[in-house]
């Protein structure tokens, strides 16, 4: 029995129960206040704060203008910064895709170089064929002119 009392002392002891009861009563009072002021709270939450004027000393007006300018610039750039931050987890995948694209490009460059070499060889062969055919035609014309 004594062991059970020791184990449950923080739960069942009147001192701790009294504290828990006080906390619950405070929470209950707070919720009752919220329910009573529900309409007023709802109006305050819906009404934007920017419509209320904030008293600022004249000496600080210059700084407020600078602050608002910086705030507008920050808000304009915020979406871009958020996109950048969201893309950070995708960087490894993007790097892998870029590596794959680079390898494919290298293969295409090699193929293009081979094709260029084949074209140059074909051009040389065509030049030889053309010059041979011109020489043959010239020889034929020469031999025909002799007869």
Describe this structure in words.
With 147 residues, the chain is mainly α. Helix content is 85%, strand content 0%.
Secondary-structure blueprint:
Layout: H1 2-7, H2 9-12, H3 14-36, H4 38-46, H5 61-87, H6 91-146
The stretches of 5 or more residues where confidence is low (pLDDT under 50) are none
Q: For the terminal residues, how far apart are their CA atoms? A: 142 Å
Assembly type of the shown chains? single chain
Class by alpha and beta content: mainly alpha
Provide a compact summary of the structure.
The protein has 147 residues and is mostly helical.
Keywords:
6 helices; 147 residues; single chain; elongated; mainly alpha
